[in-house]
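Pilot study result, target chain (317 residues):
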Amino acid sequence: MSEMIKMHTKSSITIEEGCEEFYRWCRLNGFSEYTIEFYQGIAHNLSTYTSLEQPINIFDKTLYEDYCLFLQQKGIKSTTIYTYLRGLKRMLNFFMNEGLIDRFMIDLPKMETPTKEVYTEEELRRLLKKPNLKKCRFTEYRNWVIINYLIGTGQRRNTITNIKIGDLDLDNRLVVLRVTKNKREIILPITESLVLVLKEYLRFRGGTKDDYLFCSQEGKKMGNDSLTNAIRKYNHKRGVEKSSIHLFRHTFAYMCMKNEMDIMRIQKLLGHARIDTTQNYLRQFGFSDLQKDYEKYNPLETLKDDSVAKRWRKKNK
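Predicted structure:
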């Protein structure tokens, strides 16, 4: 008796095979390798709960909710759990759209977004203190220049490591960002102080317009991990325990807001596609910041001669 012909459908593939299809879709749609690595990490975390060799169509709401409970019982921070599940939701939506699993509602756990502690002004002053150029090595001086750049632009790590000397137009005080998160080329202004810092730096660094701006002692491009390690060592040497490069981005947004820059302009400078992303960066804008000059800008106080306080003061002179 001959063997029966079996029909193979997409729903019979494994979870791991479905993940590979998702990574392929990400690449076709221009996602960066760093983003794809993030989703690969999400799949790896899922594998600690259930085998990825199982058929993908076993994935349903019950399995998703059981995984949520599993993460909570492991004592993982709520912010980390939220990150895991936000990534998993994107993958599961892809599986649903491809007909790999049945549709179900994916609820992310409610959580309070923690306020990020930005660099203080005192910490920034310590980091900005210029090293003695007669005594320091090139790498320490380069790190000081990078700190100036981070504070002055709030740009992302991957963007900074990919800037070439030719991307700078110091005469017109601007920089062209060719490697950005949204894949779009952006032209942004830089301040006079940063221009002066970069001009001096380039006299030491040398190089051609096709060389990367921030380089190793040997003149080679810095990788993202090299930049992270360099800033960590630099900050700790200056007595600053915080060492996050991304925290400079939050600090930039916070201080721009504190200096009364409007949020729409901050959004453009940070390259955010959505205003709510910028608003999340400014969650650390606390009560004391809101209270500063509050009466100066509050409409109840600024309406000419109609202020209750003004009338009261006149009456009680």
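One observation from the pilot: The chain has two domains: 10-97, 121-291. A full batch analysis is planned for the follow-on phase.
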